[in-house]
Structure formats: C-alpha cells, structure tokens
Amino acid sequence: MRNRRPDESLSQMTAKFMQVHPGIYEIFLPLPMRPTIINTYLIDCHGTWVLIDTGMNSKESVETLAAAMSEIGTRIED
C-alpha cells in the first residue's frame, strides 16, 4: 500500500487492496477526515460477494471501491 502525499487529493488515490486469505480481500478506502483510510473487507462466498463495512458514501470512496473490485474481478453491481 502506498501512502498519500500531503498534496495529493483523495480522488487521485489508486485502488489499494490485498488478499489476506484466499477469497478474502482487505480494501483501503479514503475518508475525508481522520482517520484518512478505512479498511473494508470483500469476501468471495462461492461466487456471491459480501462487502463488510462499506465505508462512506463519498465520490472518492465509491470510485476507489469500484477500482479495487474491478482489479479483483467483480463489480459493485454484482
């Protein structure tokens, strides 16, 4: 995971996630206040995805979540 530079806006952050166990992903979503990142978890339950702690409903958070899910191989709509 890379750290955000002080002059870098939240919308410029790239999707950051890591697979913590087969089928379980920790996704780091931006927050507009401190703490500046929230950890969410995406779990593959035999083809059905479960998202634990969806973060805030902000443009930056939703865009980062969508980008991470795309890299993992799923979509928010799924």
Helix fraction?
10-25%
Helix count, per DSSP?
1
Summing up helix and strand content along with how strands pair, one would put the structural category as alpha+beta
Write down the Rg.
12 Å
Return the string of H and E elements: EEEEH
How large a portion of the residues is in β-strands, by DSSP E?
25-35%
The tally of beta strands, per DSSP, is 4
Strand order of the largest sheet: 1-2-3-4
Categorize the overall geometry. globular
- Write down the overall mean pLDDT: 84
The profile of the biggest β sheet is: 4 strands, antiparallel
N→C terminal distance: 25 Å
- Low-pLDDT runs of 5+ residues are 1-12
How would you characterize the overall build of this protein?
It contains one helix and four strands. A four-stranded antiparallel sheet has the order 1-2-3-4, with helices on one face. It has one helix at residues 59-72; strands at 16-21, 24-30, 37-45, 48-52. The protein is 18% helix and 35% strand. The radius of gyration is 12 Å and the shape is globular. It is an alpha+beta fold.
